[in-house]
Every structure is written in structure tokens, then in C-alpha cells.
Amino acid sequence: MSAYLDAVAQLEQTVKGQGAGWNAISAEYALRMQLQNRFKTGLDIAQHTANVMRADMAAYDADSSQYTQSLGCWHGFIGQQKLISIKKHFGGTKRKYLYLSGWMIAALRSDFGPLPDQSMHEKTAVPALIEELYTFLKQADARELGGLFRELDAARAADQQGKVAELLAKIDNFESHVVPIIADIDAGFGNEEATYLLAKKMIEAGACAIQIENQVSDEKQCGHQDGKVTVPHADFLAKINAVRYAFLELGIENGIIVARTDSLGAGLTKQIAVTKTPGDLGDKYNSFLDGDYIQSADDIQNGDVVVKANGKLLKPKRLASGLFQFKAGSGVDRVVLDCITSLQNGADLLWIETEKPHIGQIAEMVNRIREAVPNAKLVYNNSPSFNWTLNFRQQVFDAWQAEGKDVAGYDRAKLMAVEYDGTELGLEADKRIRTFQADAAREAGIFHHLITLPTYHTAALSTDNLAKEYFGAAGMLGYVEGVQRKEIRQGIACVKHQNMSGSDMGDDHKEYFSGDAALKAAGKDNTMNQF
């Protein structure tokens, strides 16, 4: 007997045990509703997805080809359609996650309207989007299972026993659309207590993995913009501790913390680190400060700050903003120190924000980190802020030039041009882009590849195409040819938008509750029957 039928039989005993007052209750219908809502709370989701992600991390440690991926989604519907598509095309959701981007919350979900990625949006928008995403993913479960249940009823009515057995197996082995979300908490939205309080809300909404960065909270900038300001390690580690305490308080003992460093592109710090002994963590942080060694008090001007570093007196360079400057060229060393320190103090994964997608650059840093922490793993931003075409064409150009290959037919500064699309160089660059994730997972320790805001760009692109056609000469054909016909032929589930919004599930419930008296929407006059 199937697990489904076993569960029906068990629940039937409960229903019968309540006497005549429950005669209208079907144990099978009640079980269906339970299966369609298997995650009762956000903490259930956080625990389930943490288990999934930990297993995937272990699988990657054993085999780097088992890397994971995600796309950033700014609305529950987008996340839902992504997972429905993944199940349709790949048969399951294994190693496929969601990413929650602080950038997209700021740009698309703030009550203030579109904002830059500078932690100015409401912090409550972060857990709200996590909850929304999981609400839509749970609805995707309910919708797919509802379809299987209706097919099961039809097969039983037609006495198709083979079909019944096949559907019962599908129900027993159903794979949820609920997958891990790596959620961006920016720099914590305040001090360590503020970080803890927000982390709790995010975990309660379902987050199993929280990504936090080492920028100053009130000076936070997008990782791909200038003006980034980092904090001393002690400040950042306090926030990592705050997130860990939030996980432990809520019982998610295997929750994942992703420690992001922006030091590669951050040349400024707001404060000088506290140091007690030469060579301690604060002293190491201060050793990167740019400045001048001085001999006496005569070298100090009004308002200057002086620290003891390397056994000498250092007068750090202070800008008009009050910020201190790091030595030029110290970014890689600071990244390595950041990463080792984070992993040795409670973080599980790393995020190194880079200025270009270059496997050699990433591997150089990761190899140094792995000298101290051998199983160090990265979450990496395959960012839309990179010009992937130009970057990789220039990488191929430089490699070929170094090898002595003739590149006279190419203008390195203009390699984005369409005329290079079909050339040997253009094709080689595209090949490297295609294999970038697998190559970087193997050579540079990248466990998880994400794109932060791809659906921001796809929404803009598809809307531009539709507007151009529909309001132009094509008229209604612009929608039919560009959207609906493709939906039908590609098997896009939401072409039946009434079904996607829950109409059929509503009909099911009406039948459960009212029996033959139920007034259903899915009758012969429902225009969705055209699809």
C-alpha cells in the first residue's frame, strides 16, 4: 500500500473516533489539505532548507561538480514561476535555490519608491519578502498536488488501476518547490542588537541562510559602487555572533551564515581598530592604514590621530569626511584576512565581492584562505553589474596575446561590438562564459553561484518588447505572437492564469466543504478550457 493510502487509513480512524458530528468530514480530503500545506511555520521551512543546504555543502566538499545555483527574485510570483520552470525542465529542484537581494528590495519593494542599494529601505521589507516567496512556493506545492489529486479521482472513476498506481507513486514521491533562500541582511541595519532582531524575523519567515557584509551599516553602498567603508573585524564578528544567536534561539542549530567581504573594492574605514597587543586582530587591521610615520609631536597637526603600529608612530591619512584611507593595493590581503577571520569565528560560507568575473583572481584569494581553512567555500555573485561579454572577450584577447597569438584583427577596447560575435575570439569567450560556473566551482572553491538581480532585467526586457509591439503596428499580435503563443507551445503553466491563482484549488475546497451543492468556477463556460 502507498504511504498516501496508509495515511488516509490512519486519519480515518481519527475522524470516525469523533462520532456522528464528523460524518461530513472526509479523511482523504483532510489528508490532501495536510499534504498541500506540509510546512506549517516559517521555522519548519528554515529547518528543512537548512538540512538541504548542509547536505549540499557536504556533497560539494566531496565533489566540486556538485555546486549549487540561484537567481534573485523580487516577488513571490517570480520565485514561484522559477521553481515551477525548474521542476518542468529538470525534473526536480536539487541544488537549485532562491536568492533574496537587498538591491532589489531597495529598488522595487520600498514604500519610499525606488531607492539605491544603501540600506535606506525599511528593514521589515526583508522578512516580508522571504515570507511572500515561501507563500508562493507553498502555493505551487498545493497547486501541483491538487492536479494530481484530481487526476487520481478521474482515474479511479474510470477504473484505470495502472494509472491510479502511477499517480499514487507520484504523490508519495512528491518533491516540494520549497528550497533554500540565501537572504541578504546588508550590513545588519544598525548595531549588533538590531542585526539580531532582524535576523530573528528573517529566520521566522523561513530563511536558513543569512548573508551579512563587513561595511559600515550607515554608510553601506552597493558592492559594485564606489565609496565603500569597512568596519574592524571585532565589529563584524559581533554581528556574526548576533545572527548565530538568533538561529540558536529559534532552534535552527544548523543555520548558515554567509560572511561577505567588500574589502577588495573598499579603500576606506570609519574607525581605527582597538588593539591591545602587537599582532592581534585590531593591530593587523590597522597595519593596512595609509599614512606617515612620525618622529615627534612636532609632526602632529591640530585634529590629527596617531596610532602605534609596527613599533612606530603612524599618523593615518584622514579625509575631509573623517574617514581613514587604506594603503593602495592592500585589498587582496585584507580580503584574505577578512575571510580567514570570519570562518574561524562562526561563519559557514564566504562571499568575496569582486570587480570582474575572473577565475584566476578568485582562485588566488581562495587558495590563500584554504591554507588556513582547507574547506573554505564561496557564494559568488555572477553579477549583472559585470559586462560579461566585454570582460571575457578581453580575457581571451589578453591570454592569446600572452601566448603570442596574432590578435591584430581585434580592437581590445571595442570588443563589445556585434562584428565580433561570430569570430573565433567571440566564440571562445562565449564558451568560457558558458563553463564559468563549473570551472569556478572546480578551480576557485565556489559552492554557490547566484545572480543577484536577473529578474529585474528580464522584467524590463520583456516589458520593452511587449510595449514596442502592442502599441506599434503589430497591435494585438504583439501579445499573441510574443507572449501567449509562446506560453502555450512552451508549456508555461500560468497560461492558465485562473488555475495558477488558485481557482481550481478553491473549487476543490468548495466540494470538500459543500459536497454536491458547491458552486464551482471550472465549468463549461470557463474560458480557461480553451487552453
From TrEMBL:
Gene3D superfamilies on file: Phosphoenolpyruvate-binding domains (3.20.20.60)
Keywords: Lyase, Metal-binding
SUPFAM superfamilies linked: Phosphoenolpyruvate/pyruvate domain (SSF51621)
GO molecular function: isocitrate lyase activity
Record InterPro entries: ICL/PEPM, Isocitrate_lyase, Pyrv/PenolPyrv_kinase-like_dom, Pyrv_kinase-like_dom_sf
CDD domains per record: ICL_PEPM
Catalytic reaction annotation: D-threo-isocitrate = glyoxylate + succinate
Keyword Lyase (UniProt): yes
Protein name: Isocitrate lyase
Organism: Rheinheimera marina
